[in-house]
Amino acid sequence: MRLQYAPVALVDGGFHLADKSPAQIERVIADLLSLNVQQVCPTHCTECSDWMFAEAFGEGFIPGGAGKVITLP
To answer: Which of 3, 18, 61, 72 could bond 54 through an S-S bridge, CB–CB 3.0 to 4.6 Å?
Structure first.
């Protein structure tokens, strides 16, 4: 039985992936997608994999950074 999750509007923060392999990062992305995360905003310690998040989440990818203001609907 596969669980269905209500949409999660946004996951924002440092995902601590700087020293992780591409395969490990892909697993994190797959987990976020399986949890029905709609948008991600990776910040510090994740910049090295931003392109992977951008590719996976498309318009749901928000480049992060200090002072970034995100308005949710």
So the answer is: 61
